[in-house]
Design goal:
Layout lengths: L2 E4 L6 E2 L1 H10 L2 H5 L9 E2 L1 H12 L3 E9 L3 H10 L7 E6 L7 H13 L7 E4 L2 H10 L4 E6 L2 E4 L4 H4 L1
Helix pairs in contact: 5-6
Length: 162
Amino acid sequence: MGVVVYDIDGVLVDPSERMEAARRAGDFWRAFLDPGLLRLDKPYPGMVERANRDAAAGRRVILLTGRPERLRHATLDELRRFGLNVDSVELVMRRDRDRRPARIVKPELLEHYLGPGVEPDEVYEDELGVALELRRRFPRARIYLVARGEARPLRGLDDWLG
């Protein structure tokens, strides 16, 4: 069956316009996590299609996001609007008041959600720090670093990273 994990912001969704609006707002995180600003996001169609194909092939698709739980319904509505079959995925979100860095909270959430001894087959992530920590915790998983809708194997970057 296999387990595939996708981040949302930066992987399935292009949040660049929302980020710009949040920078102008002054209180970045308050604005960035405002459900009303999700309307500024755009999909990365190739990544959304990939997630849909994985789910249709019977793979367990988990969306692992740094978005807080209070955005669950708005996030599912957004992903549905972008063409993701949200009924065939599992959404894992941080607790509302958890403000720890993504490189700490996301791997911890995934470990807890999957349970002892379970590793994903593939992970698609856009933040290098998170990707490196996921690789450390899940050494058998294929980790992909995603930029502007294009996925590249993290292992292929080892020479470049040093």
